[in-house]
Amino acid sequence: MNGVHDMGGMDGFGKVEAELNEPMFHEEWESRVLAMVRAMGAAGAFNIDTSRFYRETIPPHVYLSSSYYKKWFLGLEEMLIEKGYLTREEVAAGHAMQPGKALKHGKFDLTQVERVMVRGKFARPAPEPAKFNIGDRVRAKNIHPATHTRLPRYVRGHVGVVELNHGCHVFPDTAAMERGENPQWLYTVVFDGRDLWGEDGDPTLKVSIDAFEPYLDPA
Amino acid sequence: MSEHHHDHDHDHSELSETELRVRALETILTEKGYVEPAALDAIIQAYETKIGPHNGARVVAKAWTDPAFKKALLEDGSKAIGTLGHVSRVGDHLVVVENTPERHNMVVCTLCSCYPWEMLGLPPVWYKAAPYRSRAVKDPRGVLADFDVTLPKDMEIRVWDSTAETRFLVLPMRPAGTEGWSEEQLAELVTRDSMIGTGFPKTPGAPS
């Protein structure tokens, strides 16, 4: 979706402010939110792309004015309600009012912790051969799905070169919408800075994205 | 989601309201039998103790001293790091990109916050915030100036936007004046930002 989360190339956000000796968490609740997201994901309440999509659908003014973990919290709460794991009444009451819904991988307990400390595996067997070779010129499609996508706006319509082939992976665009893994080839595609930003752009700049095959046309 | 509180009294901050909501959610998830609070504690403890830039620093230091390892690392980051018993477990598709005198690499996730956290720990706030995500792909030299980093005018800058499950780790250039240093000594010079591409390793002898 063309949301505010798709920030590449936007102006006006100001300087990057790095915090000296930044703590891992600024408030204790942030750590609880992170743990709940990891735990409920590992228990099978949602896949990681769905959780990303829920954060993207936070209204723009809320997204821009909320801290990172606040966005995680808002996305998690809404997603769990919509997926039927809890109700708005329960959230308002602050307590469970009815039994839980069965989780695909069962209750998240201590035996599961090790599992969440390694990133998930998203590589899948290839359903068909790759369409593009290293060195091929490709054009990022001019698409504007209202759902989750990993094709940022700033490359759409632009021509780049295939630099790496990462194999076949779960396609987030369909996985996020719970329409299946639909594995697709994934490439690093590199664009010239001035193709993206015009003649005034930095001539020494090259930018790459990781693009799934359905995002690309031969050029 | 709740938007009712904006005009209310200010001694009831948004932060404390968020805290209450987070606690309520954890209570509900616990009462419904979805999660065990002790398991949440254990996740947090694992994040706080097992991951961090020390992991990435060891990998970089090893690459600086062992040409065969460096070659393997650049060919397949996950596989090469997997051969080092003393570094935390690493996910698939970690791509290591090398800085050279001709090219500087910088990593961003414009869409959210993708980051090689097994190697670097959880990302800092700035990495996840709008100024960095918006500008890194358009004006990386401006972003680097915010970090007091200046590159030669004609050096290529390559920005890697982590838009998929692939994760990128920058292999910075080994600082001059470190000939004969051990891996352990070298690892001390490797900063988190040097592995994101927004900084350089520390210089030998400079105050840390």
Automatic annotation (TrEMBL), chain A:
It holds the Pfam family NHase_beta_N. Residues 1-102 form the Nitrile hydratase beta subunit-like N-terminal domain. It comes from the Bacteria. The keyword Lyase applies. It catalyses: an aliphatic primary amide = an aliphatic nitrile + H2O. Keywords: Lyase. The keyword tRNA processing does not apply. Its EC number is 4.2.1.84. This is Nitrile hydratase subunit beta. GO terms for molecular function: nitrile hydratase activity; transition metal ion binding. InterPro entries: CN_hydtase_beta-like_N, CN_hydtase_beta_C, CN_hydtase_beta_dom_C, Elect_transpt_acc-like_dom_sf, Nitrile_hydratase_bsu. Residues 123-217 form the Nitrile hydratase beta subunit domain. Belongs to the nitrile hydratase subunit beta family. It is an enzyme of class 4 (lyase). NHase catalyzes the hydration of various nitrile compounds to the corresponding amides. It comes from Bradyrhizobium sacchari.
TrEMBL record, chain B:
GO terms for molecular function: nitrile hydratase activity; transition metal ion binding. It is an enzyme of class 4 (lyase). Transmembrane segments: none annotated. Its EC number is 4.2.1.84. Gene3D superfamilies: Nitrile hydratase alpha /Thiocyanate hydrolase gamma. It catalyses: an aliphatic primary amide = an aliphatic nitrile + H2O. Residues 17-198 form the Nitrile hydratase alpha/Thiocyanate hydrolase gamma domain. The keyword Membrane does not apply. Fe(3+) binds at residues 109, 112-114. Keywords: Iron, Lyase, Metal-binding. SUPFAM superfamilies: Nitrile hydratase alpha chain. Belongs to the nitrile hydratase subunit alpha family. This is nitrile hydratase.
